[in-house]
Fold WDTC1 protein.
Amino acid sequence: SVLFAVVSVVLLCFVQERGALGFERHYHVTDPFIRRLGLEAELQGHSGCVNCLEWNEKGDLLASGSDDQHTIVWDPLHHKKLLSMHTGHTANIFSVKFLPHSGDRILITGAADSKVHVHDLTVKETIHMFGDHTNRVKRIATAPMWPNTFWSAAEDGLIRQYDLRENSKRSEVLIDLTEYCGQLVEAKCLTVNPQDNNYLAVGASGPFVRLYDIRMIHNHRKSMKQSPSAGVHTFCDRQKPLPDGAAQYYVAGHLPVKLPDYNNRLRVLVATYVTFSPDGTELLVNMGGEQVYLFDLTYKQRPYTFLLPKKCHTSGEVQNGKTSTNGVSNGIHLHSNGFRLSEGRAHVSPQVELPPYLERIKQQANEAFACQLWTQAIQLYSKAVQKAPNNAMLYGNRAAAYMKRKWDGDHYDALRDCLKAISLNPCHLKAHFRLARCLFELKYVAEALECLDDFKGKFPEQAHSSACDALDRDINAALFSKSDNAEDKKGGGPIRLRATGRKDSISEDEMVLRERSYDYKFRYCGHCNTTTDIKEANFFGSNAQYIVSGSDDGSFFIWEKETTNLVRVLQGDESIVNCLQPHPSYCFLATSGIDPVVRLWNPRPESETLNGRVVVDMEGASQANQRRMNADPLEVMLLNMGYRITGLTSGGAGGSDDEDSSEGQVQCRPS
């Protein structure tokens, strides 16, 4: 009986501990905590920019790496410096990682001197030095299930794998991006899926993010070595560096077609940070030169610019997302050459009225729209969409707000909303027209004309409205201007794949992988990422409830993940915030940037005085960042030097101002 009592007590303690831990991890980041987040401490010890931060698994140690070529290990809970050592690097440190299952004894660093160093912290010595890369090493990745293995990404376009159990102090090339993208491609970041360590995500030059199956790559190479004909090739043989199915690509659907325009404006697209959600089902990317994107790895979706609606049977049954009867479903149909309109009949479910509290939110959004507060309207519509995801009217209204705001990617998000509205209500008049306008703004001119013609057929009473006439004129003018450049359309594959002028450097395998790429689920706007190529974005909270990102304006931004709404902006650096690393189990955030300090943030007591680092005008900060991203690089440089440029402080960002100037209410007014 005594043994039974002891076992019972042990089991009870275990259950209570597991329960407390589960409760802590589930609730450690909540909305009230986010809204009280403030600066707790500044850790001083570096003499240069702090380019990387890393928590250990328990969260009681924090490592930092700097331009001063030192790494420091901190006790962040007591604000103490535990250890400082020169790493042996001769240039800026860009990445620092604890090696899993080493008792926090082994630390790995990668730097601008093209070297990867392994350090034993107990004796403050560098025990391995790898010099296999030929350009700057930007990121190191580790994996819990691979305790002696780690990976590096460098600007020589290579992903290398290291095994510390091997006698030879060399690494092997896991992925060579130059075989796919040419000699100028640079790898910038990488990360391993925390739940399935066989998957490695890589960010590099350009808008595409790559997901690799490490096990498939190793098995492929092992089988190649064991094959009797491994060394015998005919003239037509071509050895694939990666097996089929070992790589998946992800890209924001509008970016490939926008890339030539960005290049002409010296605006570089490059993934500066990639990370998985805690459960491994989502991939977050901070896209340099653009926004932050979240990709769903479970429910993948193709880019919406390849999707088209099937025709609605009549025009009189349902309009603008309101009451509907039997009609025709538009079913989302995939077609690799653009929008193909096809007939089909199906049942359309009656539009469910919004409950009173959501109706109030929608009315508030409509009022914000009427006052030209586009971002406020978008956030309110998004809040309502989260609660009523099958309401066509909300998607149609949010699309109108996106089209008015015109930030980078807004027309593509509007197109996605229009397609969603039409899928829910195939006879949504405004969504059909806005879809044609979005296609035009996204440079899919022929598809826009086809969509507009379809709109006129469905809604003949609108065929000669001022809005239709204006869009018709715009489309035909664009088609006429493109007729002299018809050669650009020949032999280059779909327009979204012509992402570079160096077409001969893109392999056939790369073209196929890009063609099969998947689109994003959510987009987060407000920050600016154009000045540094190490800027991070991270999940915050064990359930990934929030998204955080650094910014060129010295602030860091916090969004709700599901609504994409911006909820908090804090001033984290005098110049630029690059690094944001959330604590593994507390509402505790470490940040760094150009300043030679590490800053720690947590919820401040309600009794504490007003937090001076809170950016109250979040909308103003977001607008300024959108203008900064679209500014001439020289103007940005002058702005950073303290000059005020008129062009940076007026007007909208990312689009022309005359989009709706002559259009009727079919597009402009929300329903």
